[in-house]
Structures are given as structure tokens and as C-alpha cells.
Amino acid sequence: MILSLYFQRHFDYLINSSHGYDTDEIMVAQLYNHNRIVNYKSTTVNQLKERFERIKNVGKKLDECPMIERWMNSSTAVWDGSPTPIVNDKDETFELQIKFVSIEFFDFWGLEIVDGGLPDRIDYGGENVIVLNRSAMKLLGYTDLKEAFVRSTSPLSISFVDNKLIEFGVYMTPVSAVVEDYYMGHLTEGIKPMIFIVGAKDPEGDVMIKVKKDREKEVIDYLRKVEKEIYNSEDFTYKWADDIVAEMYQKDKETAHIYILFSHISL
What pTM does this model have? Predict the structure, then answer.
């Protein structure tokens, strides 16, 4: 009975916890009607120019829409990430969830920078910076941001600048800021240690749109017209961030019910 009550209270606490980021009125839209992977061997210069001209035109249309509060491109949503080995200054290796984001990412999702700071802007070819969440700082053994340096076992990003290959993250790199913890996925998985590689704005990816309150239908209609005008397509798809998170929460509730059921059976 005690075990059953423990599971009940533990999962009740998790289900009622805040995920730690803003989802209100945020749309995740697929507005770029083309394959994200570019085959440069078979793509002509004119095709590339047309591709980026369309992306530019989509941006103009988003800027012109009075029902849109703000927007950004991102290949990484707040709940996305993948495990990667990160090494601290004692040459110890730990697994962190890596995310590739732009400076706007943190403010857009309402994530609080609790220590350090970010540059005003990072242009393409500029130096990336590293941000850790509180959990990553603790896991890596750091209590002072000034002492926090990390590297990876392989390049975290690769770019060509002035015909030179730049491999970022293979040497010890200072941590620029610490962000507050949040649940990036299922609540039952707990808060994961995260590393954010902050660089130039993503030219493509999904379009994250903060819609003005009660203007959702108007924005959807507007974006359908944009997709039709620029890509001559009606394949515009989208999801609301609230719905994506609700789906994860629903799976957490199902997991909680299963654990509670087994705890009753074991009595």
C-alpha cells in the first residue's frame, strides 16, 4: 500500500509539473515546400538562387503579417535533442542532449539565462558559443561559470570560412551561459543535462510562430495563401506547441497508470 501511494504521489507531482517553457499561441509550421537536404552535385546555381529567394520571400510575408507577434526558423524545437559525449576539464566524458539553436531560441521559448550571457548576434561564419543547463553544469562538476570548459570527442559543427575548414568543439571551449532546467521530453524521463550550440540563424528548418491571441484562424488562412503564392502548393502543415506537449503528457499519464496498476498487483 505504501509503495502504491508513493507511485501515485510521485506521478501526480510529475503530471502537474510545469515543463518549464512557453507554448502559448506557438505554431510549429512547415512552410518551406522543398527537400531540406540539398544535393549540391545535381542542383544548379539558378535552382539554389530560386530556393533561397523563396525562403526570403516567406520571411517577408511573415514580417508583414500583423497577426504574428514574432517568428524564427529552427531545425531544433525546445523538445528536440540527441545524445552526444561531452568532456569536462578533468577529461571525464558524460552524455548530454545536444541542441543547435540561434540566439533567439531562448527568449522565444521563455527560457531564462541564469548565469552569463549571449552575444548580441552571430553571423554565418562567426564563432559559435556554448550554453549548458543547470543539470549539465552539475553533471560536469562545475559550480562556477568562469571555470566551465567543455569539448566533444568529435566536431560539434563544421563550417567553411574563407575556404578554411572550421571544426567547432574539438578543443576546450568556455561555456558562455547557463540556462534554467526544463523538461525537454516526457516528464517521466526527468530533466536531462543539455548542451546548446548557439550559432547563426538557421536559414531553413521549421518555422516557429508566436501568434497574437485569438488570431489563430486568421494566421492559418494567411499562411495557406503564402504557401500557395510562393510554392504553388497546398501542402502547408502545422502543429500547435500546446498539442505537441499534451501528446507527451498523455503518454506520461498512461505510463503512470501502468506503474500504479503494477504496484497494486504486487501487494
Answer: 0.83
